Protein: 2,3-bisphosphoglycerate-independent phosphoglycerate mutase
Organism: Fastidiosipila sanguinis
Amino acid sequence: MAVDNKVVLVVMDGVGISDKEYGNAVLNARTPNLDFLADKYMMRPIKAHGTEVGLPSDSDMGNSEVGHNAMGAGQIYSQGAQLVNESVDSGRIFESETWKDLVEQVKENDGTFHFLGLLSDGGVHSHIDHLKALVKEAKAEGVNKVRVHVLFDGRDTPPTSGGGFIEDIENFLSEQSDDNFDARVASGGGRMVITMDRYEANWPMVELGWKTHVLGEGRQFASGTEAYKTLTEETGCIDQDVPPFVVAENGEPIGTVEDGDSVVFYNFRGDRAIEISRAFDEEDFSEFDRVKYPKIKYAGMLEYDTEVHIPSHYLVSPPNISNTLSEHLCGLGVKAYAVAEGQKFGHVTYFWNGNKSGYINEALELYEEVKSDNVPFQTTPWMKSAEVATKLIEAIESDKFDFLRCNFANGDMVGHTGVYESTIIGMEAVDLAIGRIYRACEKAGYTLMITADHGNAEVMFADKKDKDGNPVAKTSHTTNPVPFYICDDKHEWKFKEGEFGLSNLAATVCDVLGVAKPDASWNWNESMVD
Ligand SMILES: O=C(O)[C@H](O)COP(=O)(O)O
Ligand SMILES: [Mn+2]
Ligand SMILES: [Mn+2]
């Protein structure tokens, strides 16, 4: 189908709007292209956090999953964080067949119930309150032994807040323990070192996680708290980079995974849960040598991939995201292109399409990935922005596609390192890439839209200073709005009155492409433009 107007959408990952200059790597970067575009065309802030993207409350910062889901679906779905809250509060989670099977398995075999996941209250991938509720219920149902395997966060929480969380959970587990119930932390490490890789960027991370949690191999400590304290003091690392550890007694790990055990991965978000789930779930698994594959029951908190069905068992049903922009455009025969570097490839494909991997219609779509480097991104803050822009420009010049989207990872991935100076350079690299894309759009007569999925890089320092008066790094996302630009020389688009957010984007894309929007039964939120 021919469209009136071809459209390129650039998602600047983790680039919010704030007028506070202190620690603002967006405002303080030299971004002549973005400044020029904001001046010449329309730019306005739109909402990208809280209930606007299906999170429990408006104090919840946005994240990539909920942001890309909202953009790609054109509507707001209650997201994993909210669905798990509801299921735990109502007790429905414990009525599921999956939960009953997990408990029965452990009780029948006198086995151990393992809980593995991100240890924080960040609410992006997991929540410590969910972990506590699962442990309490396991005890109430007569399970005798629980082992918790923790991943330190500091990425959705302050960078060195892990000491508080590990102490909290170890206190909680020892309070729960009695003559019939033995609950302890058994292993762990930083989320960027073990277990929580995504989009197959770094399988050795997952292998190291398997060795730590399942095989109990690694440096031994008496407790998680001792491990955290020693390892952070020795290396000076922030939480996400804490080396792996194993809790042991008399040289023996206290919580290896054995035949007859049950394992729950208690993260609700899927991108960083899929690889470890595959390692637990797949009989024939060849990404690394598991050495031993215990006969256990495994479940995820949610179904992480609703297309390929990973994992095979889960505790809470995920949002059933359907009627997406991709489905609508494919239905109309509109040709679409998506590109990002590895770290964000699934964001513009899997998250964009409602947590479904793969194409909607391969005859109409092309998805391309530029491999990310496995390096600390503060050392190379430009990341693959130039290569992603080059691929996108080639796709524009080929004139084969009607709607093209891409994601630049820099504001977010460099933002999460907490290194302000690097994040400024990351923003400048994005700006350079956008300048090139804008010129390609101008030449080909395409409309360029630019937005972001949530804030991050615009707030690189926490509110407080350290004891010497120096800034304290902030590594997490924000609740700030994000920019939305339409750069079009052929039409003068006017924003409608009112407040808009990421879920208004899909209808807006249809209007700018000049194609019909789906009928009211698709429940899309309205377009932002007249
Ligand atoms: O997974 C991560 O890297 C962070 O927890 C959230 O970042 P993202 O939502 O931008 O991916
Ligand atoms: Mn993001
Ligand atoms: Mn992020």
Remarks:
- Residues 420-444 form the longest helix (25 residues).
- The radius of gyration is 23 Å.
- The mean pLDDT is 98.
- The CA atoms of residues 54 and 78 lie 4 Å apart.
